[in-house]
Amino acid sequence: MSDDFLPRAAPTPAARPAPSWAKKPPPKSKANAHTRSKITARRYHAPRDPQDHARKIAENVLDAWYQSFGGSSIDVPLGTVGALSLVRNVPGLADWILNLQPDELPRLFKEIYLGHWIKRPDLINRAIRLHDWAWNPDPDTQQLRAVHAVTRAAVNTGLMDLTGHDDPGHRSEADVLSPLLTGLRHKSDKKWRGEYHTPACVTDLMANMLVDKDFAQPGRAFREPAIGSGGMFRSVAQRLRDLGLSTHDFHWYGNDVDSLSAGCAAVNAIIWDLGPRCLIGCADSLAPGDDYAATRAEAKEAFEERDRYVDTARTIVAHRRAFALLDQLMPSKEAA
Q: Cα(109)–Cα(132) distance, rounded to whole angstroms?
């Protein structure tokens, strides 16, 4: 299966020239073939508050990205942390990731996103800006160094301890992408976009006040027209779990005008296990028309596309098995 079957993101405008300080050659890595096998994850003493833990992860990732001269493409560190947040933490995995070289990381991230694309192609397609850079056949070496630094910073700050649980309730204790997205955005950019994420303490309070067993009847729909990275959905999902209810029994409709925010919400929908009835759109909620109808159509198309690729893959496998069987049944020329 080729690397270009996922839809591509629209071309981005040419980047501004790098400032003079960014042209300084990066420091050479002290790691070599001898030391690679000795790299292990640091034991991180996470704050008791998951929100503080998420903020600390964002701070360390930001430091790693900018100190490594990663550039202005904020989708790259976001996509890196998003990919790492989608894997379940098993013994030895963190150490294995830390021992990967910079040029090996894009393949890892592609496999992570592809694994979830099989289950939720609509959400992974929505998050295309978070992983589109990983498919670049000729990646920038400096950017890969920065991605490597971000990966190490996230893992060593306990990202997988926060998002790697098998229990979605534990994975939903904090939104890791929200503080990272707002930290990467320039102040003027946030003001122009009107992007101000509601603090978790506020969304938790709203969910606890508004959602009770009488209100939260299975089949009810929750709608968020300015979803950001999905903080309100996280709080409602946790409230439902506290009430002994399943997030899979409800409909979730989230929308945001910013494609990067919508991509973060789509990844979070998988991390938080909002279920098969969750749709994330990217459109202007104030514009006339039913934007969720368009989102439903896009989701349907994504699943149909996935089914076509899976059917093609199955056909190829069946043909290869048939040819292998013929080779076994047909006498070889030497035997004849």
A: 10
Tell me the average pLDDT across 9-14.
44
Whether the CB-CB separation of 264 and 124 falls below 8 Å is answered with no
Residue 26 counted as domain residue: no
Q: Does residue 210 sit within a domain?
A: yes
Residue 304, in any domain of the structure? no
**The pLDDT of residue 35:** 44
Strand partners for 255 = 281
DSSP letter, residue 282: E
In a domain, 127, yes or no: yes
Q: Find, among 215, 241, 231, 230, the residue nearest to 279 by Cα.
A: 230
The percentage of the chain sitting over the pLDDT mark of 70, rounded to a whole number, equals: 81
Domains identified in the chain, total number: 1
Q: Quote the domain boundaries for residue 71.
A: 41-282
Tell me if 263 sits within 8 A of 128, measured CB to CB: yes
pTM of the model: 0.83
In whole angstroms, what is the distance from residue 84 CA to residue 139 CA? 19
